[in-house]
Amino acid sequence: MLDHGKERIRVTNFGLRRMRMAALSLRTYVQGHIIFTEWCLDLSEITSCDIELGEIVYEPPRDGPTLWEIGTPDRSAAEFYIPDPNPKYVNKLYLTQDKFRQYGLWERYAELYPENDLVYTVGVSDYQKDWFFAQVNREIGDNVYQSTTWQIKFKIDNVDQGGSYTLRVALAASNHAELQVRINDPTADPPLLSTGEIGGDNAIARHAIHGIYWLFTVTIPGSLLLGGENTIFLTQAKTANTFQGIMYDYIRLEGPSCQNGNL
User: Fold this and answer.
1) Which intervals hold domain Rhamnogalacturonan lyase (predicted)?
2) Where do the H-state alpha helices sit in 74-209?
3) Which of 30, 162, 171, 208 ranks highest by number of CB atoms within 10 Å?
4) What DSSP string describes 199-220?
């Protein structure tokens, strides 16, 4: 039985047949929650058996109240803006469903943002219309690519300078990409987060809308925030080829923890 916050899910039993006995990983997720749970089972020396996992309780990560969020935590980028395909590449099978399966959608980013990158304003922008489904490179020459930096603009009226704010960044896919996160200074070195090169699921090139899930937590000291408008900079730093990029699943900013426990 998995207890995910207010949701409780009971798994009675399941079976696996004709499988290669080895060390296995059991992963779970619940749509609508940031979830990353994994249990390792070593079955390398077992031929047949019943395994009782017992009761497993998992609390979704949470440090403070939600100030804003982008997307839906469902391990997919399907809710974000998916552009129309180049007329040369239209596949009639996907005109009314699974639009993300159209060929060459990654090239549309540079057409929509030829010079300046995506800017999303909390409370004004709509992630279904204004958040491109994949953060990819911009081609600036023959097989020459430029990294892209997206901005999230938001306001905080009363900043707790002594507190800590928490940014949750869940990725639906990553292909040999590096995500860097900065606050209010696009050139800050080091950034608040640098993932290093991660992923290799090739979801962008394979016309998928999700790959392997990644979850990152970024602590933002209140001293780095301003009363009024602030900007988070999200940079995809790898530029070797057109398919180095990421798909976001969900982004959430949490305020400092509440003493009364009401989140």
Assistant:
1) 66-253
2) 108-112, 127-130
3) 171
4) EE--TTTTT-S--S-EEEEEEE
Write out the two tokens for 122: 């909390």
Instruction: Supply the DSSP symbol for 112.
Output: H
Report d(CA 155, CA 123) in Å as an integer.
Answer: 9
Residues 6 or more apart in contact with residue 147 via CB below 8 angstroms: 137, 235, 236, 237, 238, 239
Tens digits of per-residue pLDDT, 200-225? 999 999 999 999 999 999 999 999 99
Report the alpha-carbon distance of residue 263 to residue 122 in Å, rounded: 20
| Under 8 Å between Cβ of 57 and 3 | yes
The residues near 79 (Cβ < 8 Å, ≥ 6 apart) are 71, 72, 127, 128
> Domain 66-254 carries which CATH code?
2.60.120.260
Q: CB-based contacts of 230: which residues, under 8 Å, 6+ apart?
A: 153, 154, 155, 156, 183, 184
Give the pTM. 0.86
Kindly state the DSSP code that residue 184 receives in the 8-state scheme: S
What type of residue is 202?
N
222 alpha-carbon distance from chain centroid: 23
CB atoms within 10 A of CB 195: 20
The segment(s) of the chain belonging to CATH 2.60.120.260 are: 66-254
Match 């020396």 to its residue by tokens: 45
- Contact in structure between 133 and 247 (CB atoms under 8 Å): yes
Those residues of the chain that have pLDDT short of 70 are 1-29, 35-54, 56, 258-263
Residue type, 67: L
